[in-house]
Amino acid sequence: MKDGPPKMTALIHPERLEKFVNQVVENNPVSVAVLGAQGEPVLTSVPGLLPADELARYHDWVRSCFNQASSDPMLRHPMIPLYAAPLLCQGSPVGLLLVRFRQDPADAETRHQNERGARQIRAHLQDLIAAGYELFNLSSEIVRNYEELALLQDLSVKLSAQSDPLRICEIVTEEVRTVLQARNLSILLTDPKTGDFVSMIAIGRDGRRHRPFRLGSGEGITGRAAETGQPLIVCDVAQDPGFVPVGYPITSLLCVPMTLGRKTMGTINVSDKPDGAEFTTYDLKLVMAIAAEAAVALENARLFVEVKDLFLSTVKSLVMSIDAKDPYTHLHSLRVSEVSAILAEELGLPPSDVEQIKLAALLHDVGKIGVPERVLLKPDKLTRHEWEAMKQHPLLSVQILEQVKQFSHIVKWVRHEHEHYNGTGYPDHLEGDAIPLPSRIISVADAFDAITSDRCYRKGRSEDVAVALLKKDSGIQFDPDVIRAFVSAFEKSRFKGLPE
Ligand SMILES: [Fe+2]
Ligand SMILES: [Fe+2]
Questions:
Q1: Of 242, 266, 285, 424, whose CB has the highest number of CB atoms within 10 Å?
Q2: Predicted local distance difference test score (pLDDT) of residue 72
Q3: Three-state SS for 137?
Q4: Which of 57-66, 86-95, 146-155, 355-364 is most confident?
Q5: 347 alpha carbon to ligand 1 midpoint, in Å?
């Protein structure tokens, strides 16, 4: 919202003003000019006694009228029959009316009549301004509502694709910062385990992040708003016995809970307008609308994570049941999955890729379900024929995974997890970068677990031995970049605590 009264042209439509002035001029031997708040001409009756050059001639007097505008409603020029009166809107000057009479009457009575005439013209104009102001307010409200609607539509689109609560909080923060100027803003989410409120974002007007903080259930103004589900505006938090300091200065606070039904997901907290003004009900309405959108997005994100966790635990139990066929490969896929994720992180891949690689690694040996147990569990060296059967397992994995739409992007990675960097692997003898990076990662993780685990034909070897063996095969069986990432992770002891 703009400060101060609206412009003359926003209060009276120029056409309407012209009509009015023409009527006045038709009925009176006068000329009329209307100036804006800065002295700019808005309308001058033509032909008239107030041509631009005359206005210029009396420029200094006109300017002085502006200075006195609020003290005396009607001023008369000392030399000529020219009257000036301020035009006010809600008590603030929005312009100046100038009425120039044709002749300067000698007698006081006619002069008095002229002045009365000028006052009447001003009174009519004031009525038009008052009506215009009402209309202006109404249209501003409509524009405001429309802007609010557009904002919420935009926000809802931005939030719809989000399943990460932190990202949702970031988007909401940006949105609140766009619509409301404030010194500080924080978004707190409810910790479902403890009921505490944890700050996901606490940010100053300059974009600098504050230290994260946590409030106990029901603690502070936030806790009160969350418990009742009702938003709060506190003009001076120092006067509020429930206020808990959070590490940055706050005087006035607008706290809006993000609720869905009876459930409070968290709160949006906006503190201190930069000009020291109080928060208005309009500010509150806007933040409430944003909070409602945020609550839906947060609940959707929670449901998404819940369904994903359920899906992953189903996949895990399926894979573990396959691994369990062989006591020696018990939890193999789970460990390969963990190690692959660590390697992907070391290589600097984004979290979404890490997650997918972790899933692919978990499923990398799912095809072993189709390899006869006598081959899979054979303690002795495999015959050529048996080895060929064993080498089928990546293709069998592909056949299984292809059935599930959600696995479509990882099928290729699983297919190539037994390719060698120098092209001597199977099933397609791919070489170097032609092997998908996730497959090259899983390959190293798979070998690491195979070397360090007990097998029916030998004891598992130490991690140091495994590192040495893997390094020896860098550039031969394994991608040198992945081996470097592996060594780096090993030196940081990142493989401690894998499932056993
Ligand atoms: Fe395999
Ligand atoms: Fe494997």
A1: 266
A2: 57
A3: helix
A4: 355-364
A5: 22
343 touches 440 (CB < 8 A): no
Q: Which sign, positive or negative, has the C-alpha torsion 263, 267, 268, 274?
A: positive
- Ligand 2 centre to CA of 113 (Å) is 106
Could you give the CA distance from residue 354 to residue 358 in angstroms, rounded to a whole number? Answer: 6
Provide the whole-model pTM: 0.58
Query: Where does CATH 3.30.450.240 sit in the chain?
Result: 8-134
The Cα 424–Cα 419 span in angstroms is 7
Q: What's the gap in Å between 393 CA and the centre of ligand 2? A: 10
Which CATH code fits 8-134?
Answer: 3.30.450.240
Is residue 81 predicted with pLDDT exceeding 90?
no
* Cα(363) to centroid(ligand 2), Å: 9
**Percent residues over pLDDT 70 in the chain:** 95
DSSP H or E run through 185: strand 184-190
The Cα–Cα gap between 231 and 40 comes to 46
Q: Which two tokens stand for residue 438?
A: 């996730």
Computed on alpha carbons and rounded to an integer, the radius of gyration of the chain in Å comes to 39
- Residue 471: per-residue pLDDT: 97
DSSP 51-83: -HHHHHHTHHHHHHHHHHTTT-S-EE-SSSSEE
For 161-303, which CATH class?
alpha beta
How far is residue 421's CA from residue 359's CA, in Å, rounded to a whole number?
22
Nearest partner of 283 among 353, 180, 142, judged by Cα: 180
Answer positive or negative: Cα dihedral of 306, 312, 318, 320. negative
Span from the CA of 351 to the centroid of ligand 2 (angstroms): 23
Domain(s) of CATH 3.30.450.40: residues in the chain = 161-303
Closest CA to 102 of 83, 85, 116, 120: 83
- Which residue, among 15, 7, 3, has the nearest Cα to 36 in the 3D structure? 7
Residue ranges of the chain assigned to CATH 1.10.3210.10: 324-491
pLDDT at residue 2, as a whole number = 44
Q: Say which residue, 301 or 423, is predicted with more confidence.
A: 423
Looking at domain 324-491, what is its CATH homologous superfamily? Answer: Hypothetical protein af1432 (1.10.3210.10)
> How much distance in Å is there from the Cα of 346 to the middle of ligand 1?
22
The C-alpha angle with vertex 122 and arms to 121 and 123, in degrees rounded to 5, equals 90
